[in-house]
Amino acid sequence: MFIDKLALLLTIIGALNWGGIGLFGFDTVAFLFGGQLALLSRIIYTLVGLAGLWCITLFFRTDEEHGHAPHTA
Description:
The chain is built from four helices and no strands. The protein has about 70 residues and is mainly alpha-helical. The protein is elongated.
């Protein structure tokens, strides 16, 4: 599903950004888009947060909903 892949991509971008903050004290989103309080940065932070919330739903889906064959024992 397209939205799942988009949400995963945004979540990965957010994770890499947080990794950069934690390891190097460098916020890539803020650097690229005009600071943490710049409108574009805040939009990106919001989209990453919403993507993270969407990814929570992946924990509660069945294999059939993902398009995978069911597991057999």
